[in-house]
């Protein structure tokens, strides 16, 4: 099996925007919080054989740092504070935080340490696993092949929708974590920038910088999960997470994720103050149409004009699903679509990995994600799920 004598991840900014946004909030509010995260393969793939190659790459990451040019780029965003950026410039990955092993063919990864440091491991590790796996299984695939397939999809897209008013369509690249490779992601996004007027940005700060795109991202499930143990009251954990985010970012980055403890539980906490303060909300599990209708009814019930708010859809989207949702909602509320694996790993005869890294503990205690899609629910402690369901008045069907 091929070993690499060069790093695949070459810059600290080759990561999802929400990781840096969350890291800054953790830096200011939760400097001494400790967390544990673990790798999960949701598919049938046997990935343990790649553990040594992955470890080689993780070891190479210890030399990554924010360059002066990257630092200056980050200072152009009004929501990044200088104190945090000074600290980030000195930040180095601590490879002792990551334990990787091959357990009977299964890839085991456990990451533990200060949250403000551990938070940056997830995206590069997932993208490394994905690239190592795909290059081993599909050595014949090149960026040109990926772009040629994209061109066919774009031709079909424009042909099918030539009579549709797409003036309000906005699409963002969310494809870093499970991309075929960095080269494929870069080539795909570059082609979209040149040929697809509806691309407004990328979640990848590095690609956004070099292609002069808008970096897009707010928060992930881990933000809400950690608050389950940070908050003195489990029932108020979502409220604390929402408040702390507003305290850090005010009017910036104000799209809230809804499905850490189900959409219904989220909306009960997303009161008039939060609904007015946040620009909108993000869908990441469950039926997107039902979710969108619930969101519209929520805003209307609170007397908020939905046309002043935004729904960001980001769950397993492709161009066909995007157009279907666009037709359903674009005249009723602002919509943005984050497309990931179906963009950066959509290549004929290639089956992408379904892999994640999830928080499992905060300050030594369990945390959970109770998704609107049962397959995405995750917790290592059954008793804690019971406590969470009781606190949020949910039936124990997870």
Automatic annotation (TrEMBL):
Pathway: Cofactor biosynthesis; NAD(+) biosynthesis; nicotinate D-ribonucleotide from nicotinate: step 1/1. GO terms for cellular component: cytosol. The keyword Zinc does not apply. The modification Phosphohistidine is found at residue 221. CDD domains: PncB_like. It is an enzyme of class 6 (ligase). Transiently phosphorylated on a His residue during the reaction cycle. Phosphorylation strongly increases the affinity for substrates and increases the rate of nicotinate D-ribonucleotide production. Dephosphorylation regenerates the low-affinity form of the enzyme, leading to product release. Coiled coil: none annotated. Pfam families: NAPRTase, NAPRTase_N. Residues 170-394 form the Nicotinate/nicotinamide phosphoribosyltransferase domain. SUPFAM superfamilies: Nicotinate/Quinolinate PRTase C-terminal domain-like (SSF51690), Nicotinate/Quinolinate PRTase N-terminal domain-like (SSF54675). GO terms for biological process: NAD+ biosynthetic process via the salvage pathway. Residues 13-130 form the Nicotinate phosphoribosyltransferase N-terminal domain. This is Nicotinate phosphoribosyltransferase. It comes from Buchnera aphidicola subsp. Rhopalosiphum padi. The gene is pncB.
